[in-house]
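User: what does the whole thing look like in 3D?
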Amino acid sequence: MQNVGAQSNYQIGTLPAININKSLKNSWRLNFKWESRQLLKRNRPGIPGESGFDYILSDFALVLSKKVGLNNSIAAGYQIRLRENQLTHRSIQQFTIVKRYTGFRLAHRLASDQTYALGESTEFRLRYRIAAELPLNGEAVDPREFYFKVNNEYLNSFQGKDYDLEIRIVPVVGYVFTDNNKLEFGLNYRASSFLESQVRHSYWIAINWFLKI
Amino acid sequence: MSNKFLLVTGFIIFVIQLSFGQTKYEKEYRIPLEEVPMTARLFVDSLNFSKKIKWYYEENLLGNSVEAKVKSDQKKYSIEFDTLGKLQDIEIQLDWGEILPEVRRNITSNLKANFTSHKIYKIQIQYSGNPQNLLSLIKRGTTKEIYTTRYEIVVKGRKEKKVNLYEITFTDNGEIIDIARIIFRNTDNLEF
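Assistant: Here's the predicted 3D structure for the full assembly of 405 residues, as structure tokens:
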């Protein structure tokens, strides 16, 4: 299916992720994340529209975190992105606060990362994410119950002399098998390229599996 | 079907099985009024709250219970019954200043003896005893009948360089009966 000359700029795809966490001694934790992208439909201004199932990339990240207060953690890690046999490296630093209220939990994440790719100048990003989790039954998310989670993230990107902003809104419905085994399903919407002539909209079907071993 | 697909599917089924196999869990959920034991309903009705009462069913390791939650006169009430409707206790959220000065002094000195530093997050006064005695206590604010008073205080406490949240139960004059560390629910899905 081709749609020549369409002006809208968007992509639609799937974004499955597996998140495996391991508690270590003295409030240390290790997080491994695998996330992959598959494109189903894409439209770019001036380029024929494309559709069909197209595997794009896989990310593998390992993050070590340490609890530094009742509600706060600091973390640092490294991610490798595999895209058409090309490797991209990324270092990650983050600080999180998780607040518990009657009836919901609220998390703030302040993070920075640096992306290194061959032949490109390093991309520096500064990002802030707020996430709210609400039980769909009772005042807390218990095992065998559903919850609703929404997060909103702002990513500032600096690369060479370029600056760009990306905004993400991710509403998902989650199910708790046990406190250490959760599955989430929803939308990962991203608006980027704000400083170019046309904003790019990305709609990813998100499937997140969180496991603690 | 490829071997890889079978392997991944098998692994997923294995993990889901593993998590369903665990039977120890705590759970709390809203229940409609029709499912509330009649004696519990009648007791809460007789307290004449003007606000809507939310009913919950709680499943935990110590046994199941039915709980009524309501906010009245800027105070949060939590009234707990067993599954047959027998009253267990009444808890009312308090401010620190509402506790008698000598009880406050005892609570503070006991907290100082247990923690290098502490901060109080939440205070509840807990009444238990004969339902009729408690009914007159809540309705009139005082009673000559016998009942038991305890304080349940949630404290952020530091000891041995570790900060944790604790639920501490005190007697009516501020002596510690029980200290339980509050274990937080997993936050991985909010952090990563």
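In plain terms: Chain B has two domains: 24-85, 90-192. DSSP finds five helices and nine strands in chain B.
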